[in-house]
Protein: Glycosyltransferase family 29 (Sialyltransferase)
Organism: Paracoccus litorisediminis
Amino acid sequence: MNRLGFLVARTLRDEAALQPLSVPQPALLADLSGKHVALIGNARALAESHHGAAIDAADRVVRINLAPMASPTSHGTRTDWLALAVRLGTADRARIAPGRILWMSHKRKRLDWRTATSPGFYLHPLDDFAALKARLGAPPTTGAMMIDLIARSDMTSLSLYGFDFFASLSLSGNRTAGKVPHDFVKEADFVANLLKNDKRIRHIR
């Protein structure tokens, strides 16, 4: 597909045309097999922590959206995967330097050509988004989608950092919970249930 074809497919929301740009989901999950994964949320409270070394020691470090990193001490420095639901500007792309980009948003019109043709690009299926939305009763955050996705893999462990379900707000902005379209109580319950039933997953505070 060339750039013009991509723009047409994106505008028309032609999912069948866009999906060939993506690595298949089974191949993406196979990359996590046997790995220790660190998923980094954007809670402000993480900036007060000293988890950076442990984060960088993971086999796969996954960050979310604009991936604010207050300091190497709190956040580490590596980004193997970047899960996006927002457009990534040139400066942030250079700062984060992700090894692979995953487009998690159902809003295909926000997807840009550079991201869609980046190495190892992954386009999250609309059916997966819809299923988690139905389960939560609200549009899922990028973090919730990534937890749901990674939990399906044969990873050895998944450590969650920077997830307090908006209790300390987000390093990415100043919006309060009432100004975003997510249900953080339901997401907290969803993660608590996963922690109870999947001992590979840890919530690091």
Q: What stands out?
A: The chain has a mean pLDDT of 95. The CA atoms of residues 40 and 143 lie 8 Å apart. The chain has one domain: 23-203.
